[in-house]
Amino acid sequence: MEVLRDPLGNDDPPRGSILSIGNFDGVHRGHQAVLSHVVERARALGVDALAMTFDPHPIKLLRPADSPRLVTTLEQRLDLIARTGIGTCLLVPFTHRVARITAEEFVRDVLVNRLAVQEVYIGKNFRFGADRGGDVDLLSRMGDELGFRAASSPIVEHRGGVVSSTRVRQAIGEGRVEEAGGLLARAVFIDGRVLEGKRLGRTLGFPTLNIEVENELQPDRGVYVTAAHIPSFGRTFPAVTNVGVRPTIYQNSLTTVESHLLDFTADVYRERVRLFFLQKLREERTFDSTTQLMSQIRLDVEASRGYYAQHPVGDLPLVLP
Q: Cα 291 to the chain's mean position, in Å?
């Protein structure tokens, strides 16, 4: 997928395309549905399939106090959009100048004059333009006047509720990673670099990777069955991960993400890894001694092995196909 990072300025975006516009945080099932529809329509008409998204998220600029922790980093979002088949992503730098563009100006100047779009698809609740003045009804009316078609994407439901980025964020933030994975049609994951820690896990018999997380949002404190993809090995390894403050060992510690990879002892310090969260095993808790902690870690490792006995790594839907 080609990414144009100045599509309203110096870049030369494709014209006559099929386009979807959105923030696409998480690229969940609803996003996937509309982006896949854009790809299908573009193929049918023999034109380009485009997605337009924004960086930073508009709320971060306009109402930073209300800004949510995002499910995906920018690069993760772009990768997930690419996996839907979109050929070009228009990554609009969201500035105060862009925020002042009215919805009508955006339609005329960007969608028609600059992009000459044939069809535009947005989420039913998506708003654009100054003061959130644009919606699918405005797009449809102006499309009839200016010669393009506009429609809202269908509502996608999963297990009795509408799929939304808000619902995904809540599930991840509360540690319900299996539910979040169902909404995303893939496993919840975070990226990060392995830091060299105090090697306490090694002294306890369970060496861990201490991961410096790049994502704003990570699962709630607790112990999880996870899978760690290490690019230098070209493999994904079964693991068990603690997200928390390690209360048995430290007081007033910052939240850390530590993963023990099953049957893995190589040194991967400073490498970037991707960690997939598959199932929550238990809440984090304080133990009276390191002996009790070690006993619980053994149980956590065995529980993780039990999970993988029924769900081999190669069979798991970790990423979008």
A: 38
Q: Which of 242, 251, 255 is nearest to 303 (CA)?
A: 242
> Per-residue pLDDT tens for 128-185?
999 999 999 999 999 999 999 999 988 899 999 999 999 999 999 999 999 999 999 9
Residue 239's nearest CA partner among 194, 291, 179 is 194
CA–CA separation, 194 vs 202, rounded Å? 15
Radius of gyration of the chain (CA): 22
The C-alpha angle with vertex 145 and arms to 139 and 146, in degrees rounded to 5, equals 80
For the chain, strand residue ranges (E) read: 2-4, 18-21, 49-55, 88-93, 119-122, 149-152, 157-158, 161-162, 188-195, 209-213, 222-230, 235-244, 256-261, 272-282
What's the rounded Cα separation, in Å, for the pair 287 and 307? 24
Three-class SS state of 190: strand
* Contacts of 145 by beta carbon, 8 Å cutoff, 6+ apart: none
Q: What are phi and psi of 121, to 5 degrees?
A: -125, 130
Pairing of strands 88-93, 49-55: parallel
Which residue has tokens 């306009």? Answer: 62
Distance CA 99, CA 49 (A): 25
Q: Which helix (H) or strand (E) holds 99?
A: helix 96-99
Q: Read off the pLDDT of residues 86-128 as tens digits, 9 standing for 90 and up.
A: 999 999 999 999 999 999 999 999 999 999 999 999 998 899 9
Which residues lie across from 194 on neighbouring strands? 211
With contact defined as beta carbons under 8 Å apart, do 224 and 279 qualify? yes
Q: Mutual orientation of helices 165-173 and 177-184 as an angle, nearest 10°?
A: 160
How many other CB atoms are there within 10 angstroms of residue 275's CB atom?
A: 27
